[in-house]
Amino acid sequence: MKPVPRLRLIISVTFLFCLFAVFQIHKSDLFAKNLQITQQVNNFFISIASSSHHQTLNLTKYSNESDEDRATQPQEETDTCAGRYIYMHDLPSIYNDDIIKDCRPLIKWFDMCPFMVNSGLGPQVFEFANKTAQVLTTKTGSWYSTNQFLLSVIFRERMKHYECLTNDSSLASAIYIPYYPGFDVSRHLWGYNTTVRDALGTQLARWLRERPEWRKMHGRDHFFVAGRIGWDFRRCSDEDWGSNLMCLPEFSNTTMLSIETTAWTNEFAVPYPTYFHPKSLTEIQSWQKRVKSVKRRHLFCFVGAPRPQLDGSIRGEIIKQCLASHGTCKFLNCNEPGNDCDNPVKIMDVFKRSVFCLQPPGDSYTRRSIFDSILAGCIPVFFHPGSSYKQYMWYFPKDYTKYSVYIPESGMKNGTASLRNLLEMIDKESISRMRNEVVKIIPKIIYTKPGLVRPEKIDKESVSRKRDEVVKSIPKIVYTKPELVGPEKIEDAFDIAVDRVIERVAMVKRMMEEGKDLHSEYSQTRDLKKLE
Asked: What backbone torsions phi and psi does residue 219 show, to the nearest 5 degrees?
């Protein structure tokens, strides 16, 4: 039996009914009748869906018996969050919001208050001059003056909108601690003794230990985002710098995500925040296309300042060679007044106009500049493995030659390495291949704007209720804006970090069940070879 005549009848009836509905709305009071007619339309379309469903069942009678069995059996629902649920502790505000309320003293010589707006993304970059439009895609509203130390705030805001956030900790594959340890320690780094500096972290450790969620794995399923380099939380001896957070027994069981790891096994490096926080995959693809096609007038560049007070710093030699290159290298000196190296337009303009971007160590192994240059499609040049290759292994290709150039810093220290000669030796085909690889990395190292997906927290009791609500709203969904899933889903730095933490917790859980030694995953011995 062919279903075509019946389908034609359904389509005709649907069309006539819609005409009738429009006529009724026009004739009668719009406000009074609208709700009634909408309900009629909804019920009518639901009846059509039901009729279509019964028609499908009738057609299956002409199939073989196994097909009939499959059609009549209820389909099992797939939980897309299975194995991906995250539980977020509801911490007292003293551990996060209260810390940043008094934003002025968070960093002694720098006012952080202007950067706290827009959920930690900072002030939005507007098109106030033609130069801005030439450098950035400001019309999208996705560019912000984001400070490098605000990752813990940005991450927490993203977590609030995580599609698999749950109120039921028994469902959780990992547990997130929304603490701002970076700002907690930075406000007490100068002019305070270590007792004051360690107080809040010690208090939080006690709070966590008393929670029922802690007892499940004694904190080994917990993670947090530091917002500073890992070294700032490792004062395990009589040294004065930093806090003792990661030396506390409770936090030594957790996983710390920091913008730079310091060679302990329960630390993992995640990208510094950049200036770009897009809302869609289309935006990212448009930007990727733009940086791939831009003309680059400089062979290489360096954005930064000399570090004469640091023993072994190669920045002085880099700056010397750059200035002697007769325009082949662009140097933006961040020590000079007016250069404003916190200005996204100026920074991105230099990187977009350069083929290679020099990334020597600064106060520590890594730099935020690494990610800004990659965002601009500029090929990074590293001088120490600890600046990238041994840090961001969740994000960059294992074969570093695919996306970067490595020049050992020893050659810069003894003056045997000529940056211009070494970089001019790289042929155009290799440059094009590396740039393509750099551009591929861009979606992985950005943090998309919080609030793209807006589900409520999920618990067991609400699942059936929400399912009923979804069924009731079927006739209306064609008018709603689709969520950022499927082809438009962006796997950004946040998503990658969460997925890797979940994988790590699952591995540790298996090790615990098998009675294996966990020392390799939570060792308190620093392995410097990890950074070599």
From this structure: 90, -5
What is the phi/psi pair of residue 490, to 5°?
-105, 120
Residue 174, C-beta contacts closer than 8 angstroms, at least 6 positions apart: 86, 87, 221, 222, 223, 498, 501, 502, 505
CA 144/CA 123 separation, integer angstroms: 6
> Rounded to an integer, what distance in angstroms lies between the CA atom of residue 207 and that of residue 303?
43
Cα(270)–Cα(256) distance, integer angstroms:
10
* Max Cα–Cα distance, the chain, nearest Å: 89
Q: How far apart, in whole angstroms, are the C-alpha atoms of residue 375 and residue 287?
A: 9
Answer whether 524's CB lies under 8 Å from 252's CB.
yes
What pLDDT digit, counting tens, does each position of 384-437 carry? 999 999 999 999 999 999 999 999 999 999 989 999 999 999 999 999 999 999
Strands across the sheet containing 405-406 = 329-333, 298-304, 354-359, 379-382, 405-406
Which phi-psi region, left, alpha or beta, contains residue 507 (left: φ > 0; alpha: ψ -120 to 50)?
Answer: alpha
Q: Is the dihedral of CA 242, 243, 246, 247 positive or negative?
A: positive
Question: Per-residue DSSP letters for 244-260?
Answer: -GGGSTTGGGSEEEESB
- Residues 355, 322, 308, CA angle at the centre, nearest 5°? 125
Question: From the DSSP assignment, how many helices (H) and strands (E) are in the chain?
Answer: 18, 11
Q: What is the pLDDT of residues 274-328, one digit of tens each?
A: 999 999 999 999 999 999 999 999 999 999 998 888 878 999 999 999 999 999 9
Q: Compute the distance between CA of residue 515 and CA of residue 83 in angstroms, rounded to an integer.
A: 22
Token pair of 163, please? 């599609």
* Strand partners for 266: none
Q: In whole angstroms, what separates CA 521 from the centre of its chain?
A: 24
Question: In sequence order, which residues have a C-beta less than 8 Å from that of residue 527 and are 6 or more positions away?
Answer: 263, 264, 265
CA atoms of 93 and 95, how far apart (whole Å): 5
Q: DSSP labels for 104-172?
A: GGGBTTB--GGGGTTTTT-SBPP--SHHHHHHS-GGGS-BB---TT-HHHHHHHHHHT-TTEES-GGG-
Q: Which residue has the tokens 């009071």?
A: 29
Do residues 219 and 250 make contact, with C-beta atoms less than 8 angstroms apart? Answer: yes
Cα-based distances in Å from 334 to 106, 326, 420, 511: 22, 20, 22, 49
255/518 Cα distance (integer angstroms): 13
pLDDT for residue 362: 86
Q: Where are the alpha helices (DSSP H) in 353-453?
A: 369-375, 409-413, 419-424, 428-445
